[in-house]
Design goal:
By secondary structure, the protein is of the alpha/beta class. It folds into five domains: 183 residues, Rossmann fold (3-Layer(aba) Sandwich), CATH 3.40.50; 75 residues, Arc Repressor Mutant, subunit A; 173 residues, 3-Layer(aba) Sandwich (Rossmann fold); 161 residues, PCRA, domain 4, CATH 1.10.486.10; 46 residues. It contains 29 helices and 22 strands. Helix 2 packs across helix 3, helix 4 packs across helix 9 and helix 9 crosses helix 10. It starts with 47 loop residues before the first helix and ends with a strand. The structure holds a DNA duplex. One of its GO terms (biological process) is recombinational repair.
Length: 809
DNA sequence: GTCAATGACATTTTT
DNA sequence: TGTCATTGAC
C-alpha cells in the first residue's frame, strides 16, 4: 500500500521525544495565541489532522486514532495548548487514561511541554479518579473515607461465602458465574434493589440470584467497601443523588479528555455524561445556552481496538458519539508512525474481515521493512525454543531486550515459554499473570493492614483471624460474628469483649491479643495522631512481628514458606519505597495504590528484559520486535469466544491489536500440538492466519510444511541443534500453504449482498460462524434479518444485506 | 482444631 | 499441572 502522495510527510519519529521542543513558560503579557509566523512548538511536527485535533475548540471532539497514529502526542499537546493559551487552568483539566502508567507518562509529557507548571491536573484512570472523589465524599452517603477496595479475588471470596450460606450451588450457581453477572449488572448501572424489583420470582433460580446480589451489596456496605465496579457506578449514583456534589466537579472540570474511549462501559459513559452536564447554578442564572456551561469533551479511540466487551465495554459509545454529542467535530488520524508497511498491510488485511466497521486504512511513510516471519512448532516447547532463538539473534543484531515482547492469548501459555527462556538464558519479565499481590502471604499481610485501616471490613479480618494459627477456628469465628451482630458492635469491639463469650482461656487470650495489636497499629496509623501518623512500613513491621506471622513462616518445615517469608519482606520494602515516593502518604493511600495497580504499571522501561504479556495487556504499548505466540484455533480465537455474540470479531481485533504493537519485526508462531492439563492435544492454525496476504510472510516452518515427524518430542529437536544453525537443512522457506487461495478472498469493504434471497431451510456459510441453516426470515427490504442456527455457534440473527454470508448447497 | 492424603476439576481476556 | 475441597485420623 502506497501512501497518498498529497499527504504531508512529517517526522516519523513520533514516539521519540522531539529534540526541538522547548519548554514554554506562560507569559501573562502574551496574547492567547503565539505570534503569527513564529514556529509553535506545540504544533510543530504535527501533521494536518493532528494539528486540527490540537487546535479545535468546541464542546465535543472525537479523535479517531488508528494504531500508532500519535494520539498520545495529540492529547498531550492539546492539554498543553489549552493551558499555555490560558484557556484553562491545570486544575480544570480532567484526563482519563486506561492505565496508571499511561497517566504518569501523560502527566510527565504535558509538564515537560509546559516547563513544569502542570500541578493540579487530574490525569488518572477512571478508577483512580473515582476513588479520589469517593474518598472525599464518602461520609455523605454512609461510608468512611477509609473504605476498602475489593479486588476481584476479594469479591469472589465474598460471593463464595454467600453461595454457601444460601446454598445457591444447588441451583447451579458457581462463583465465577455469579461474579461475572453481578459485575455486568453494575457496569450497566443496575443495582441490587433495581434488579430485585424486576426479578422474576416465579423462577426460583432468578429469585436466588436476586438474593445473592442483594446480600452481596449489603455485605459490601457493611464492610465499608467498594468493589472495582462500584468505584464507577457508586460515583454515578453519588452525582445523581447529590447534585450539589456533582456541581462542584462540574464547575471544576472545564476540559475532560478520555483516552481509549472504545473500551468504556455504560457506567463510565454515564460518569462522563454527568460530568459534562452544565452545573445547575448556571442553568438557574440563565447562563446556559446550548452547549454552554458544560465542560468540553475530547475522546480518543479506535473501534478496531475494542477488546473489552467481556467486561462491559460498549463499542456504541464511540460509534454513536456524534449522535450523542450533536455538533461534535471528528478528526481522523490514519498516518501510522510506528510500524513498517508490511506489518500494517497484514494488520489492515486482518481487520478488514470484520464487517460493520468503518473502513479505515493505516499507511506509513516508513517503507516495507522486513517480512513477517512465521513458524510452526511441533509443540509448545518447540515454539518457545524458536522464540528464544530468535530473541537471541535479534539481540545480536542490536535490538535491546526491552524492545522485544512476547504476546499470548492466555496466561497459562507462559509456562512453556518461561521454561525455555530460563534454559536459554533469555532475560524476561512477565507482566500480570500471578501477580505479586495475589500471593496468599501478601494478601495475608495486606489483610492485616486493611483490618487496621477499616475496622468494619469483616472479610479482611476473617482472613487474619487465624493466620498465623492461633486456635481460632470456624466455630469460634461464628460465635464472634453472632456476638457482634447481637450487640450491634463492630468485629473489633466484639474481639475486645471476647471474655464475655465464655470461650476457653487460650482462645480468649488469642482473640484479645489480636484485638490489642490491631488497636495499637490503628493508633500508630491514625492520620490525626499527634506528631503525625507512623509510616506504613512501621505499621506493617509492628503487625507482622507482633502477630508472629513471619516467625511462623520461617519456622515452618515447608521449604516454600521460606520464599513466602521473603515475599513478605519484599512487601515491607515496597512500603518503604512508597514512603519515599509519597511523603506524607497514609496507610489508606498505600492500600489504594496497591488495589489499583494494573499489569502494565509494572512495566519498567529500563529493565533490560524481554516483556511477556497477554494480548490484552499489550494494548497501548509498542516494541521493535513482537512475537505473537499460539496463533491457533481455540486460542486466537479462543474457544470460549465462539458462543459469545461478536466473539470472533472481538478476537480478530485482539489479534489486530497484537500485530500493530510491532515497529519493525513481527513473528507469528504456533504449534501443532499443545499441552493442557498435562494432556497434549492437536492444534490447528488460526483462521486469522489465512487472512494475511501470503507474500507478507516468510514461513520458516509453515503450518502445511511441517511434517508430523517431530511428534511431541521437542527434546529430540533440541538435541539435533548444533551451534546456532537451524535444524532443518532443507528448504528454509517452505512455500506458504494455501495462501494465495485464501488471502483477501473476502474483501474487507462493507459487504453488500444485494437482494440475496433466503428462505427457511437454506444452508449458508458465515465467515465467522461457519455453516448453518436458516430458520426464518423477518423484516423488509434492506433490513431483512435471517435467524440462523449454526452448527458450532448456535442461534444468531444476521442482517442479510451486510452479513458476511453466502448460500451453499 | 490441625494436618496429611486423596480426588475432582479446571484455564479467557482485567480495572 | 496445580489448586482446591473434602475426608478421616490424631
Amino acid at each position: 500500500m502506497t501512501p497518498p502522495s498529497d499527504r504531508i510527510r512529517t517526522d516519523a519519529a513520533d514516539s521519540a521525544t522531539g529534540p526541538s521542543i522547548v519548554p514554554v513558560i506562560v507569559d501573562p503579557a502574551a496574547g492567547p495565541r503565539a505570534a503569527e509566523g513564529a514556529p509553535d512548538p506545540l504544533l510543530d511536527g504535527l501533521n494536518p489532522p493532528q494539528r486540527a485535533a490540537v487546535e479545535y475548540r468546541g464542546d465535543a471532539l472525537l479523535i479517531v486514532a488508528g494504531a500508532g497514529s500519535g494520539k498520545t502526542r495529540v492529547l498531550t499537546h492539546r492539554i498543553a495548548s489549552l493551558i499555555r493559551n490560558r484557556e484553562a487552568w491545570p486544575s480544570q483539566i480532567l484526563a482519563i487514561t486506561f492505565t496508571n502508567k499511561a497517566a504518569a507518562e501523560m502527566r510527565e509529557r504535558v509538564s515537560h511541554l509546559l516547563g513544569g507548571i502542570a500541578e493540579g491536573m487530574w490525569i488518572s484512570t477512571f478508577h483512580s479518579a473515582c476513588v479520589r472523589i469517593l474518598r472525599r465524599e464518602a461520609e455523605s452517603f454512609g461510608f468512611t473515607r477509609a473504605f476498602t477496595i475489593y479486588d476481584s479475588a476479594d469479591s469472589r471470596a465474598l460471593i463464595k461465602r454467600l453461595i454457601k450460606d444460601l446454598q445457591a450451588d444447588t441451583y447451579g450457581y458457581t462463583v465465577p458465574q455469579v461474579a461475572a453477572r453481578i459485575s455486568k449488572l453494575k457496569n450497566e448501572l443496575t443495582d441490587a434493589e433495581t434488579y430485585a424489583r424486576q426479578a422474576n420470582y416465579s423462577d426460583p433460580q432468578d429469585a436466588v440470584f436476586s438474593q445473592l446480589y442483594q446480600e452481596y451489596a449489603h455485605a459490601l456496605q457493611a464492610a465499608n467497601a467498594f468493589d472495582f465496579d462500584d468505584l464507577i457506578s457508586q460515583t454515578v449514583y453519588l452525582f445523581r443523588a447529590f447534585p450539589e456534589v456533582a456541581d462542584r466537579y462540574r464547575t471544576r472540570f472545564r476540559h475532560i479528555l478520555v483516552d481509549e474511549y472504545q473500551d468504556t462501559n455504560h457506567a463510565q459513559y454515564s460518569l462522563i455524561r454527568e460530568l459534562t452536564r452544565p452545573p445547575r447554578s448556571n442553568e438557574l442564572e440563565g447562563v446556559s445556552s446550548p452547549g454552554n456551561g458544560g465542560a468540553s469533551l475530547t475522546v480518543v479511540g479506535d473501534s478496531d481496538q475494542s477488546i473489552y466487551a467481556f467486561r462491559g465495554a460498549d463499542i456504541r459509545n464511540i460509534v454513536e458519539f456524534e449522535r450523542d454529542f450533536p455538533g461534535a467535530e471528528v478528526v481522523l488520524l490514519e498516518q501510522n508512525y510506528r510500524s513498517t508497511q508490511n506489518i500494517l498491510s497484514a494488520a489492515n488485511a486482518v481487520i478488514s474481515n470484520n464487517f460493520d466497521r468503518k473502513d479505515k486504512n493505516l499507511w506509513t511513510a516508513v517503507g516495507d521493512g522486513a517480512k513477517i516471519v512465521g513458524y510452526t512448532g511441533y509443540s509448545g516447547h518447540d515454539e518457545a525454543q524458536f522464540v528464544a532463538d530468535e530473541i537471541a539473534k535479534l539481540h545480536d543484531e542490536g535490538i535491546a531486550y526491552n524492545e522485544m515482547a512476547v504476546f499470548y492469548r492466555t496466561n497459562s501459555q507462559t509456562r512453556a515459554l518461561e521454561e525455555i527462556f530460563i534454559r536459554s538464558a533469555v532475560p524476561y519479565r512477565v507482566l500480570g499473570g500471578t501477580k505479586f499481590y495475589e500471593r496468599a502471604e501478601i494478601k495475608d499481610a495486606m489483610a492485616y493492614l486493611t483490618s487496621v485501616a477499616n475496622p468494619f471490613d469483616a472479610l479482611a479480618l476473617r482472613r487474619i483471624l487465624n493466620t498465623p494459627k492461633r486456635g481460632i477456628g470456624p466455630a469460634t469465628e461464628t460465635q464472634l460474628a453472632g456476638f457482634a451482630e447481637r450487640e450491634q458492635i463492630s468485629y473489633r469491639e466484639a474481639m475486645r469483649r471476647a471474655p464475655e463469650l465464655g470461650l476457653g482461656p487460650k482462645v480468649t487470650k488469642a482473640i484479645v491479643d489480636l484485638a490489642t495489636l490491631l488497636d495499637e497499629a490503628a493508633e500508630l496509623a491514625d492520620p490525626d495522631r499527634p506528631g503525625g501518623p507512623g509510616r506504613v512500613s512501621e505499621v506493617l513491621t509492628l503487625l507482622i512481628e507482633r502477630s508472629g506471622y513471619v516467625t511462623t513462616l520461617r519456622a515452618s518445615r515447608d521449604p516454600q514458606d521460606e520464599a513466602r517469608a521473603e515475599n513478605v519482606e519484599e512487601l515491607l520494602a515496597v512500603t518503604k519505597e512508597f514512603a519515599v515516593n509519597n511523603p506524607g502518604g497514609t496507610l489508606v493511600d498505600f492500600l489504594t495504590e496497591v488495589s489499583l495497580v494494573a499489569a502494565v504499571d509494572e512495566l519498567d522501561d529500563a529493565s533490560g528484559t524481554v516483556s511477556m504479556m497477554t494480548l490484552h495487556t499489550a494494548k497501548g504499548l509498542e516494541f521493535d520486535a513482537v512475537f505473537i505466540t499460539g496463533v491457533e484455533e481455540d486460542l486466537i480465537p479462543h474457544r470460549m469466544s465462539a458462543n459469545e455474540p461478536g466473539g470472533p470479531a472481538e478476537e480478530r481485533r485482539l489479534f489486530y491489536v497484537g500485530i500493530t504493537r510491532a515497529r519493525k519485526r513481527l513473528f507469528l508462531t504456533l504449534a501443532m500440538t499443545r499441552a493442557q492439563f498435562g494432556e497434549t492435544s492437536v492444534a490447528m492454525p488460526s483462521r486469522y492466519l489465512q487472512e494475511i496476504p501470503g507474500d507478507l510472510v516468510d514461513w520458516v516452518q509453515s503450518p502445511g510444511g511441517a511434517t508430523s515427524r517431530g511428534g511431541t518430542q521437542p527434546r529430540a529437536l533440541n538435541a539435533a541443534r548444533p551451534g546456532s544453525s537451524r535444524w532443518n537443512d532443507g528448504p528454509v522457506y517452505l512455500p506458504p500453504k494455501p495462501k494465495t487461495e485464501w488471502a483477501n478472498r473476502v474483501t474487507g469493504q462493507v459487504r453488500d449482498n444485494g437482494d440475496l434471497e433466503l428462505v427457511p431451510g437454506d444452508r449458508i456459510r458465515h465467515t465467522d460462524f461457519g455453516e448453518g441453516r436458516v430458520d426464518q426470515v423477518t423484516g423488509e427490504g434492506a433490513k431483512r434479518v435471517a435467524h440462523v442456527t449454526f452448527e458450532s455457534a448456535g442461534r444468531k440473527k444476521l442482517l442479510i444485506k451486510i452479513a458476511p454470508i453466502e448460500k451453499v448447497g
